[in-house]
Design goal:
Elements lengths: L1 E8 L3 H12 L4 E4 L11 E4 L2 E4 L5 E2 L6 H8 L7 E3 L6 E5 L2 E5 L3 H9 L6 H16 L1 H6 L5 H5 L4 H8 L3 H7 L15 H13 L1 E4 L4 H13 L3 E3 L4 E7 L2 E7 L3 E10 L3 H7 L8 H9 L5 E9 L10 E5 L15 E6 L10 E8 L16 H22 L3 H4 E7 L1 H7 L17 H4 L10 E3 L8 H17 L1 H8 L5
Parallel strand pairs: 1-2, 1-13, 2-10, 7-15, 13-19
Antiparallel strand pairs: 3-4, 5-9, 6-9, 7-8, 11-12, 12-13, 14-17, 14-18, 15-16, 16-17
Amino acid sequence: MNQYDVTIIGAGLGGLECGFLLSKLGLNVLVLEKEPHVGGCLQTFQRAGHTFDTGFHYVGALAEGQTLNHIFRYFQLLDLPWQQLDTDCFDEVVVGERSFAFANGHDAFVETLAQHFPHQREALKQYVALLKQVGDNLPKSILNPGQDLGASLFACSAHKFLCETISDPLLRNVLSGTSLKMELKADTLPLYVFAQINNSFIQSAWRLRGGGQQLVDALANGIRRHGGEVRTQAEVTSLREAEGVISEIEINHDEKIVSKWVIGNLHPACLLALVEETKLLRRIYRQRINRLENTYGMFTANLRLHDNALPYVNSNIYWHNSNADLWQPHNNGEESLLISYQVPEKGDFATNIDLLTPMSWSEVEQWQSTKVGRRGDDYKQLKQQWLDKTLDMAEHRLPGLRQMVDKAYTSTPLTYNNYVNTAQGSAYGIRKDYANPLGTILAPQTPIPNLLLTGQSLNLHGVLGTSMTSLFTCAAIVGLEKVVDELKVHEW
């Protein structure tokens, strides 16, 4: 029976980063992925010879000296074909008929918006000061987890902070306008999540020419260079406990291996479902994890455009109905839309764009027991209806878009649930609740000493948040001091 130091279930970003770091430190690492390709939400797919991203669109804080730059430098990901977005307008927020630019740099961000809201200049300065404080504090959150600024701001309301800081309701909507980076929910979203994510993109914003698959392929190749293994079409079907630890891992219902440590890079409820009955996982713990609410999912339209039909735009467009309440779940697909351009391989015209709008699990739940490609006409009609709605929204900002589309490929939360094993197709993992941070923000450690968690459902989502979480998971195995030294966190 094969033996490993660390076995990682799920080859998404967090699992591969854990595998890279731990194998680089000399541990014998095995990464198992049940799908044919590694990557989770970062993988790409091919249609008619064209490449589309599954869930990766852009990242923040990647410029020299910024947090993701430090992390990606360690993971050897900076040499990929990154393209910085327009620093004067990396995000365009459209509310009704009015358009507002988000500029990179905290001072430029304030001054650009203050042109529209001169009476809110000082309030904007207070707003970005808090965001900057959270961003500057990120290295401290690694050096002293649980004792930094984030520990207190996880228990504060993002919505309350915004309302107390910004008196103009339109400006509040504008500042919330890039909401499809997170689930804006007034009665749950922690201030730390809101501030950390928004600050990272104000620092700098970047696309990756060629798609997110390059990230995960580079990490997988790094693991192999360090002597580790990465296996696809290797589904973990059971985890067995004996003498207080996970003693046996079953793969594809027949193969069995043993490992000193097991890391689950999947939804915590999905991981616990693999663990056979044991006194270490009490029913009350399983019920607590299973009852945690998930954030909403996304309807995505991946559009292949006719040649030379739409000029490429080096920024993102967030369109919102003028009556939209951005701080309530808006799952009817008629209020908010992200228009994301893929960097063209050559020329000045876009080849692919993605349209994303929130979609709840309840919209597709009735088909969850069906198989891909066999869901019937009702499901096809639902997807067509949502495609029509997203195109209607997009044409408010891009008139005539329908005529520019050559092919449209659509996905729902059910698609994500099936292909990348995200519970209920959730876009951001478990819903964090500032009123219950201890119950909704999870640590890597489970009640079984050698079974750990990683991924977006623990505390922070997104590329930066998931990367930070992977460091804490690794620290549970090799010690925080070794992780800090390995990444030279003191130099950040």
